[in-house]
């Protein structure tokens, strides 16, 4: 179990450092319109690449969840023991928080770096209302996070099903997370991962911390729904089915 928790810690660290790091350090490098800035398309791809590479690196050790919602969704779908949920979630949140701290130290090396707690997406944080990049409401943000997390869990469970081509599972999962970001960055700055949200909210200030609850509740609820759906869809059929 120690090796599994270490893999979850490192994998979540990688996801937050790579994904949120791309948003903080590279998305607007040189200012808007600068060809060196990667924009939100680049950020979406960065999140997908962290999951893809992390899954290949750590999937054989821990299952490469890197996300409390994924762990809960796999439990809801009958793929993960309830006894391992709390240890996995603690390791994921700790790994994400460590990455957030490292990212903060790196970003602080730029003399012009500052965090405005009232700004949407401050330090790659998630938000709704005034803290949504597109000004989307609480209800819209909750629905977006819940539905996209549910579909993410469905893709993960389908891609890792015994009948699916195992070697390509990380590719499908990474592309799914990229797609999710392309859809939802304007809405919530994309969470679908409570550990990722917590990691940057700790440094983004009171605004992000005040809205963090949603980015635990909505992804976890969506994960339970997604896990339940695929637990039914993907089960081996009985003779009478």
Automatic annotation (TrEMBL):
> What is this protein for, i.e. what is its function?
Channel that permits osmotically driven movement of water in both directions. It is involved in the osmoregulation and in the maintenance of cell turgor during volume expansion in rapidly growing cells. It mediates rapid entry or exit of water in response to abrupt changes in osmolarity.
The entry sums up its family as follows:
Belongs to the MIP/aquaporin (TC 1.A.8) family.
User: Record's InterPro entries?
Assistant: Aquaporin-like, Aquaporin_transptr, Aquaporin_Z, MIP, MIP_CS
Gene (name only): aqpZ
Q: Which residues make up the annotated site Selectivity filter?
A: 47, 181, 190, 196
Entry-linked SUPFAM superfamilies: Aquaporin-like (SSF81338)
- Motif mapping: NPA 1: 67-69
- From which organism does this entry originate? Luteimonas padinae
Q: Where is this site: Involved in tetramerization or stability of the tetramer?
A: 20
**HAMAP family, A to Z:** Aquaporin_Z
**Entry annotated with the keyword RNA-binding:** no
* Motif NPA 2: chain residues: 193-195
Return the Gene3D superfamilies for the record. Glycerol uptake facilitator protein
Q: Where are the transmembrane segments?
A: 36-59, 80-107, 136-159, 166-187, 213-233
Assembly description: Homotetramer.
Catalytic reaction equation(s)? H2O(in) = H2O(out)
Annotated domain remarks: Aquaporins contain two tandem repeats each containing three membrane-spanning domains and a pore-forming loop with the signature motif Asn-Pro-Ala (NPA).
What's the name of the protein? Aquaporin Z
Report the membrane topology from the UniProt record.
Answer: Multi-pass membrane protein
Q: Where in the cell is it found?
A: Cell membrane
């Amino acid at each position: 179990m120690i090796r599994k928790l270490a893999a979850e810690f490192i994998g979540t660290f990688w996801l937050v450092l790579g994904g949120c790091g791309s948003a903080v350090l590279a998305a607007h490098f040189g200012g808007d319109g600068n060809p060196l800035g990667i924009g939100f398309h680049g950020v979406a791809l960065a999140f997908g690449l962290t999951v893809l590479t992390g899954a290949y690196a750590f999937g054989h050790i821990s299952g490469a969840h890197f996300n409390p919602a994924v762990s809960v969704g796999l439990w809801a779908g009958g793929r993960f023991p309830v006894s391992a949920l709390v240890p996995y979630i603690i390791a994921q949140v700790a790994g994400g928080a460590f990455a957030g701290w490292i990212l903060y130290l790196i970003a602080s090396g730029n003399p012009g770096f500052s965090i405005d707690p009232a700004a949407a997406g401050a330090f790659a944080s998630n938000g709704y209302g005034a803290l949504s990049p597109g000004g989307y409401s609480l209800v819209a943000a909750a629905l977006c996070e819940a539905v996209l997390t549910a579909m993410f869990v469905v893709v993960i469970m389908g891609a890792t099903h015994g009948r699916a081509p195992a070697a390509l599972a990380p590719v499908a999962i990474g592309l799914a997370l990229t797609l999710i970001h392309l859809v939802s960055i304007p809405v919530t700055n994309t969470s679908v991962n409570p550990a990722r949200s917590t990691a940057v909210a700790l440094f983004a200030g009171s605004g992000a911390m005040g809205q963090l609850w949603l980015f635990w509740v909505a992804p976890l609820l969506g994960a339970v729904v997604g896990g339940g759906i695929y637990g039914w869809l993907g089960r081996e059929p009985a003779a009478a089915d």
